[in-house]
Amino acid sequence: MIFDTHAHLNAHQYKEDLESVIQKSKNENVTNILVVGFDKETISSAIEIAENNEGIYAGIGWHPVDAIDFKDEHLVWIEELTNNPKVIAIGEIGLDYYWDKSPKDVQLEVFKKQINLAKKVKLPIIIHNRDATKDVLDTLIMENAEQVGGIMHCFNGSIETAQICMDLGFYLSIGGPVTFKNAVNLQKVVEQIPLDRLLVETDCPYLTPHPFRGKRNDPSYIKHIVRKIADIKNITFEEVAEATTSNAIKLLNINKVL
């Protein structure tokens, strides 16, 4: 059993072969997938995919890059959608200072609103962080995000950052970059993070792990991430798969999902 905690099966790259991609993943023992929606279109499609497939769930939130387009009516809409039992997280939300579509103050406002929504509906949050670590951590602390905890999506920070996140009740989700030859720092951090605080993800169709880097990613490739973590920690593939799946089920309250 492997749980892919961040996938974009709602992306246009799967328009022609979504069913076969899902079946391929099942054949590779990927038993659970969290499909993430980040704007109006992808939120709706994430829920649709989740409703139509056993073992697939939806995370819904407004991406920081598109914060400039966010309106209070979207917040109300997202809250209403959380009544769906297949919706198990708020996200991906956070801050992105790499792209400049949305001003920082706008991103921060939208981020805070969604953290408080998550606390209201009692769902964990999925954090997107690009070039904004200090502001992300400061906001999580200021808004008492430890009340819900969540996932640091595609974590690639320092062990000091990892410790702050874990102290706030967050899990560190590791993606394809851990398999890259130049990911020495990330590999050292993964070695130090306790197994009971790790998750795995593909972020497909992006960040395809070695040896398929450059090709379209899909959840079936998550085994290469699991194997790399096992090698780093000098434990078995099965131990990593079992632990990260158990962590995801615990955090996301899967046993409560119908």
Write the layout of secondary structure elements.
Elements: E1 2-7, H1 18-27, E2 30-37, H2 40-51, E3 56-60, H3 72-81, E4 87-96, H4 104-121, E5 125-130, H5 133-142, E6 150-152, H6 159-167, E7 170-174, H7 184-192, E8 198-200, H8 222-233, H9 237-252
Parallel strand pairs: 1-2, 2-3, 3-4, 4-5, 5-6, 6-7, 7-8
Could you characterize what this model shows?
This protein is of the alpha/beta class and 258 residues long. The chain has one domain (2-256): Metal-dependent hydrolases (TIM Barrel). The protein is built from nine helices and eight strands. The protein has helices at residues 18-27, 40-51, 72-81, 104-121, 133-142, 159-167, 184-192, 222-233, 237-252; strands at residues 2-7, 30-37, 56-60, 87-96, 125-130, 150-152, 170-174, 198-200. The chain has an eight-stranded parallel beta sheet with strand order 1-2-3-4-5-6-7-8, sandwiched between helices. Helix 8 (222-233) crosses helix 9 (237-252). It starts with a strand and ends in a 6-residue tail after the last helix.
